[in-house]
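Hi everyone,

Forwarding the result from last night's run.
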Amino acid sequence: MSFGFFRKLTKPAPAPVLERDHVVAGRTLPLRIVENDRARRLTLRIDAGGRGLRITVPPGLRQGEVDRFLDRHQGWLEQRLAKVPDRPQVRPGIKIPIRGVPHLIIHEGGTRGTVRQSQDESGPTLLVHGDRTHLPRRIADFLKREAKRDIEAMVATHCQAAGRRAKAIRFRDTTSRWGSCTSDGVLSFSWRIMMAPTPVINYLVAHEVAHLREMNHGPKFWKMCEELCPDTERCKAWLKRNGGALQAIQFE
């Protein structure tokens, strides 16, 4: 989400990258002010899940201009943040989606901190053993392992179809994007995508593999993406509608 306005170019002394807090409708959010040599306007973004704010500014912009920019768009921020999903904390008794299927989290004691998918009369469950305080981290680690297994296999399939090879595959908990592809062929994915339905996971992998051939979002790229994943449009729309809710889930 972004909003900006054009300004006259000036050349004052360069401003440092700053991190500070900003209060919006009673919520204190981390704010990052990032200088970009190519920026010609101020751009305000809300991180996925409403975790924080980011302003990209032209070189040398005075902090007073940033403050005035924020004041003018406080109402816009409040409206946007009101639409951000709640940030549920991973804990026993709530449901978390695994490949799009809601699983009830059940904690069971014991010394071994294992996580296992199961089924009972209430439906799919996620059994988490070990110390209760480590439950969120154990579920996050479980999703990372599932992501590595599924996504590495999908990358291999799509790379073969695209006639390209990935240099490396990495998994992170990113808040601004679901995946990325570097110019030298390194693919990165958010392990949170394992909460999305399998076709959506497949679309994300196809999207990043397509970048191995087209490092842009032009017509040739989307044609390649459609060839790898014929369900591209539907899956892209699903991620746009539901991605924020997945990013909002807290594993801390």
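Confidence is low (pLDDT under 50) at residues 1-15.

Cheers,
N.
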